[in-house]
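Quick start: read one record
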Amino acid sequence: GQKLVVFVVHEHPTIPPPPPPRKIHPFGKDYKVGDSNEWKVPEESDFYSKWSEEKQFHVGDNLLFYYNDQVDDVLEISSDLEFKSCDTTSPVAVHNGGQDLISLTKPGIRYFITSKIGHCEDGLKLRVVVRPLTRSVPKKMQSSPFDRLIKWLHDSFRPHPHH
């Protein structure tokens, strides 16, 4: 099938080439925080916790915060306690561009709130659990069928203690 595709492209130079991959990394997703709701006081106060729980975030993913920078901002804070109490006194980072891309670079929990009084209490806060990057195993680490056969033989003929 490959030759045919190449032939067609040469015959009709008007066919655009396929778009290049958007990222160099095969992994890494962009999550638009709140989806269509974006980053603003939600109608349901648990909106962002539900949004975050429905997804699995991994190292290499990005969070995109879209909001009205006249109304809100994004403060990253460091602890669950600050998150629960909407404590904005010692943020790790402050973003106020209106369109902020925040990369999840390491596993752990990241907390984001707004500095606007009342908004955080009304549910404008996000807790994201970032999982280690297990999705991208380098090719040489994956066992070949041969390795699996050896391991199977090895396991099969080793006496197993009976439980």
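The mean pLDDT is 84.
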